[in-house]
Amino acid sequence: MKKCLLDYSMMALLSFYLFSTAPVSAQDTFEVVADLPSSETFEVVALQMLDENIGWVSGLKNNPLGEPRSAVWKTTDGGLTWTDISPLPIASPYPSTLSELFFYDEMTGWAGGENGVLYKTSDGGATWTDVSPYDNMDNDGLVGAVKSYDGSTVFATESTPEARVYQSQNSGADWDYTAIFPSGTDYLVGQDIFLKSAQEVWVCGNSVSGNDGGFVARSTDGGQTWENIVTDDAFSFANIQIFGDFGWASANSSDHMKITNDGGQTWSDLSLPNNAYAPFFIDENRGWSLQANSTSYKTEDRGQTWEPVDFESPATGAFGYYVANSYVPGKGIWVLGRTGFGEYRLYKFPISPTSSREVIASENFINVVNNPFSEQIALRLNGDASLKRGLEFQLFDVSGRLVFSEKRKHVNAGEAIVLTPTVLLAKGTYVLKTWMGEGGVAEMLIKQ
């Protein structure tokens, strides 16, 4: 079943939680942000918030006077108002619901879905280009997922017997593909892609030909070869994310979930409360299962225990059912739902950092010298002793995507450290995590 779903990811996704949080009230209520355009004219299936102001939804726009068409709407005020930035329909015999949505930054994004269509914009949605990696005129499949590591390297999945994963090094202008199941006979599609790094790529998915079952696969060479890690004959998988050693894969239409505590080498079933469908995590410990007309849950211990969490039910209609969510590190979770009266409604659960620095270790052992930074990041080690264990540096963008990492084996007290990211970084906010053994610190940085 298509994940109508959810773009956790995004998209972005659901992302690596990098900030300490302010105390949360006992009520744990999701606030209503605004209603979206009427469901009579717009079918919404995907959501991505880039930051607390800028975001997108996509789906299908119904036209009473003509054929439906693919649709993308954008907000620049946190969801209070929305502007139609839909691409013009490409030559296709059927309208395409854009169920997959991923923006690398405010200007560069992709939207794809039914009939194998994939659009790309480089100007924030003012114009769109058809970059479908296959002939959508004859293709009755779908784009299951699309993600980009750096704005140029793009991965997209297609529903085929071999579960193809397409790769592009030039934002979608040219494509190559590899197969997760080269000898596959059942139509399979990767429903979600998680880019842990430029080389380590995870895909989870399911059958689209009516058979039960799902899979979790991993590539350690940038998508050139694949290893099938998990095969489940009874349940499908629609979303996946890995946080260091901890990771999760879940479906949309069942209370089935698998987790890993060793970086994906082994996976086990996670016990969930009754009717706790489509659970997701925002970091190594905290997760949610958001439901309509029944109890929703949250966990703060990797799913070992779950507590109820409520949605606000305004007078205009109770929360009908859950459509999608998007997490912005340090800001909150935005949730898209459809009310009992058929209207789409956007909710927000605020998550605010107590400061710009989260102290995980017992002391701040390193400082950033140049914040904001330009091309390089300069740091200086505090204290009066050398670090024989060395340091590990990880740089994340606002969606929680790891964009650069580096290890230093031996660092002396007071030593100046200069990091030179190996990828082109857009201007904006990033988070640098510095690890010393099991402890570390995280600091927000600004790229000029």
What does this structure look like?
With 448 residues, the protein is an all-beta fold. Helix content is 0%, strand content 43%. The chain has strands at 29-35, 42-49, 55-61, 69-75, 83-84, 100-103, 109-112, 118-121, 129-130, 143-148, 154-158, 164-168, 176-179, 188-195, 201-207, 214-219, 227-232, 239-243, 246-250, 257-260, 268-269, 280-281, 287-289, 296-299, 307-311, 319-328, 332-339, 344-350, 357-359, 366-368, 377-381, 391-396, 402-408, 416-419, 428-436, 439-447. The strands form eight sheets. Strands 22-23-24-25-1-28-27-26 form an eight-stranded mixed sheet, with no helix packed on it. A hairpin with a 5-residue loop joins strand 7 (109-112) and strand 8. The radius of gyration is 21 Å and the shape is globular. The model is unreliable at 1-27, 313-317 and 353-363 (pLDDT under 50).
List the helices and strands and how they pair.
Blueprint: E1 29-35, E2 42-49, E3 55-61, E4 69-75, E5 83-84, E6 100-103, E7 109-112, E8 118-121, E9 129-130, E10 143-148, E11 154-158, E12 164-168, E13 176-179, E14 188-195, E15 201-207, E16 214-219, E17 227-232, E18 239-243, E19 246-250, E20 257-260, E21 268-269, E22 280-281, E23 287-289, E24 296-299, E25 307-311, E26 319-328, E27 332-339, E28 344-350, E29 357-359, E30 366-368, E31 377-381, E32 391-396, E33 402-408, E34 416-419, E35 428-436, E36 439-447
- Alpha-carbon distance between the two ends: 43 Å
Point out poorly predicted stretches.
1-27, 313-317, 353-363
Strand share of the residues?
35-45%
Number of helices in the DSSP assignment: 0
Helix content: under 10%
Sequence of strands across the biggest β-sheet: 22-23-24-25-1-28-27-26
Structural class: mainly beta
- Mean pLDDT, to the nearest integer, reads 77
Count of DSSP E strands?
A: 36
Can you summarize the main beta sheet?
Answer: 8 strands, mixed
Radius of gyration: 21 Å
Report the principal-axis shape.
globular
